[in-house]
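Risk register update: the risk of archive-format incompatibility is retired. Evidence:
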Amino acid sequence: MNRSVRALRHELGYRALRVLLDNAHRFSLSSLRRGGTAIGRLALLAERRERARALGHLTKAFPDRDGAWRQAVIRGCARHLGRLLGEVAWLWSAAPEEILARTQFVGLENLTGPLGPDGGTVLVTGHCGNWEWMNLALGAAGVPMTVAAREVYDPRLDDIVRQLRGRFNGETILRGQGAGQRLSRALRDGRVLGLLIDQDIDAPGAFVEFFGQPAWTPSGAGILALRTRRPVVPGYARRLPDGSFRLTFEPAIIPVSTGDLEADAACLTARLTARIEAWVRAEPSQWVWMHRRWRRKPAAGERVWSGSRDVEPTASASPVAARPVETG
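Archived output:
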């Protein structure tokens, strides 16, 4: 695709998103989801390259599954991403009580328990379910959220993302110069620091095992947790059949330092990636299979870190009704 065609597509995409957000308040959540589902289905038909990439990734991740199952997951993924678009449009103006009425929290105490004068908590998640819903539901419940993000190709989209995540006292810190200091300050101030670590991006990281294959994974969450000595909580959002979301926060992982920051961060990143893999295996259609997760390959002799996929959370919790929480 040449540069002018790509620029036109980006411009049309931005304008369409702007119209959607400006008018979303006129429609119900179910209507927005239906509209998003239709868009997702059309995109699946139009984007042959993305569809082929998703099929290849599913073949790599689930070699024992047949073609019919993989095609069904791809169709489900397209519907899921379309619904996600409709949900984001709804979240743009939804009242906090409306969000909380459609949210279950499981293990919320694992995330908020450590908050206090000693500092905050590192929340690690992936592009599972609706990660934007998780962020805003936590903010609506009174949890002070700071999200680390990377810049996108259009500054106007960055502004939209900042506005969305900035609702309910949330803040966004873009990766780049000075970001590490600002993120560390947010932790010292007792905020929850949310990071997505399941994509191959240009950031410091390590090769870790993901579905049995080496995948370049950002290690910033592990580095921040080790430097600030704050607990790490794996969490994910899962869309339920009735349209609500269950937000699950697993028991905190206390970072262990051996004095080798790079190795310790890589080990922790591998452990967290194993948890993300378990979530994806449980709901494969609620993940972004179009992303080039295995884009880079390790050099000869380069270490690939492995987390234990067999380790399950050491504590359990039952769903609770969403309600504001006291965080000190």
